[in-house]
């Protein structure tokens, strides 16, 4: 039986109106409401779970499939990275209680600097969100490192969204449960948290090895070296700018500019 679109009154022969794209009318029932709840509040529709499962199994292959056009079953990668970053920040801040751990740690070390406590708390609790905001920058780095391998800058934005999703899933599934178990040992938690950054090169190598599966491992390792060198150079430039800004601020404000850095 032919239906009429409730929006533009065009005849509908499939599941969607060919004129305006509205979905064919379906009476609101329990399944409809449950699907809406999942998508609106939990973001756990089939695409989300499908993408998470495939990223855990093979992140590089999942990203390659999406870029090459196999997208119908996948969650949008930038939105996926955003959702996972939010989950990561919630677990770190609310469940593990990283702010309290950092504050207690610096207090026990007689280093109760308000600046250092706030800085470490923010960068540790919101690590994934900070990296999410830096995706355009990381995309530029990987684009330069793999510039002759056929992907444009915007495809590298998607690549880095998948890398961040993979990195965040490792934190959520492996690192955070360990930190939660050990959260009463503040010194050990801080040590593990600080050393966890060293898994990043392994994450990148695993990702690009499966993404560029047709390339020799040696060529991938060479480009990984380029990525590290570009990141180090960028970090040096960033620290230099921060130091210059701090110097200018101290020059303008005088001795009172150092009060925030002093132990309480």
Describe the structure.
With 264 residues, the protein is an all-alpha fold. Helices cover 69% and strands 2% of the residues. The chain has 12 helices and 2 strands. The chain has a two-stranded antiparallel sheet. α3 packs antiparallel against α9, α8 (135-145) packs across α9 (153-181) and α8 (135-145) crosses α12. The relative contact order is 0.10. The model has no long low-confidence stretch (mean pLDDT 78).
Summarize the topology:
Blueprint: E1 3-4, E2 11-12, H1 30-42, H2 46-57, H3 59-67, H4 77-95, H5 98-108, H6 114-125, H7 127-133, H8 135-145, H9 153-181, H10 186-195, H11 200-211, H12 217-253
Antiparallel strand pairs: 1-2
Spatial strand arrangement across the major sheet? 1-2
- What spatial form do the alpha-carbon principal axes imply? globular
Element-by-element helix/strand order = EEHHHHHHHHHHHH
Mean pLDDT: 78
Number of strands: 2
Detail the poorly predicted runs. Answer: none
DSSP strand (E) fraction? under 5%
Distance between the termini: 76 Å
Rg from alpha-carbon coordinates: 23 Å
From the helix content, strand content and strand pairing, which structural class follows? mainly alpha
Short summary:
By secondary structure, this protein is mostly helical. The protein is built from twelve helices and two strands. Helix 2 (46-57) crosses helix 3 and helix 3 crosses helix 11 (200-211).
Q: Any key phrases for this structure?
A:
mainly alpha; two-stranded antiparallel ribbon; 2 strands; 264 residues; globular
């Amino acid at each position: 039986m032919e239906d009429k679109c409730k929006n533009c009154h065009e005849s509908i022969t499939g599941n969607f109106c060919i004129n305006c794209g509205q979905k064919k009318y379906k009476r609101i029932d329990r399944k409809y409401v449950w699907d809406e709840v999942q998508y609106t509040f939990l973001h756990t529709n089939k695409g989300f779970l499908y993408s998470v499962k495939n990223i855990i199994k093979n992140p590089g292959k999942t990203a390659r499939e999406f870029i090459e056009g196999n997208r119908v079953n996948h969650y949008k990668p930038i939105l996926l990275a955003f959702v996972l970053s939010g989950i990561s920040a919630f677990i770190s801040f609310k469940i593990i209680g990283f702010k309290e751990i950092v504050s207690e740690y610096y207090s026990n070390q007689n280093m109760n600097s308000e600046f250092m406590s706030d800085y470490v708390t923010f960068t540790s609790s919101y690590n994934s969100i900070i990296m999410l905001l830096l995706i355009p920058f990381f995309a530029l780095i990987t684009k330069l490192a793999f510039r002759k391998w056929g992907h444009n800058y915007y495809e590298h934005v998607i690549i880095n969204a998948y890398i961040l999703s993979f990195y965040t899933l490792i934190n959520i599934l492996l690192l955070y449960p360990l930190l939660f178990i050990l959260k009463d040992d503040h010194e050990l938690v801080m040590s593990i948290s600080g050393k966890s950054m060293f898994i990043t090169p392994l994450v990148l190598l695993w990702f690009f090895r499966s993404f560029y599966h047709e390339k020799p491992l040696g060529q991938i390792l060479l480009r990984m070296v380029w990525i590290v060198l570009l990141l180090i150079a960028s970090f040096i430039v960033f620290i230099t700018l921060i130091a210059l800004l701090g110097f200018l601020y101290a020059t303008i404000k005088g001795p009172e500019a150092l009060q925030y850095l002093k132990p309480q």
